[in-house]
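Many introductory courses stop at the sequence. We go one step further.
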Amino acid sequence: MTPPDVGIPSLIKYSQIPPTPWVNGKGQTTELISWERSRTLSPAPTPAWRLSIARLEGAAAFSPIPGVHRQFLPIGTSVLLTVNGDPRRVADHTITEFDGDNVVDLLDLEPRPGYAVNLMVRDSAASSSMTFDVCSTTDDSFRTCLVAVTLESAPGIGRFDVVTPDSTEVGGTTFSIATLHLLHPA
């Protein structure tokens, strides 16, 4: 299966996007793809989604975002979360999921600071139409994804840049990425 042709630029530079405060004011995030932009990048009837990078500095409550399913991928750190009071240890480069109306707290991270790639999908019931995986640019998963977030730097590509399978910047370079797939494109 090839990715849908939906007009995604081959490279979005993380370093060129200013961070914004979290909804609760306890940290900062860099929005790579907004809710609105995801609608133009995805075929109908894909639910709106948002892709961002959060900087993790220490203990903090997550902003509640009802009606959203969240996938959270710590990078460069392992974290201890509580989700509705239940502890959840999440290793570096490991995805965990929860609903946006859950009460989520970041209790600890080691080492500090760290980052997290966040995929949020509106309409929790529709979240099963998207997957988020960690792989390499040489994997089939990359060749069939909608977009990928680079998890390390490579020549001409910065950490947390957004690339597509047809990005000329990727070339034959091998590096870690997190891929976003549509399971049931229209």
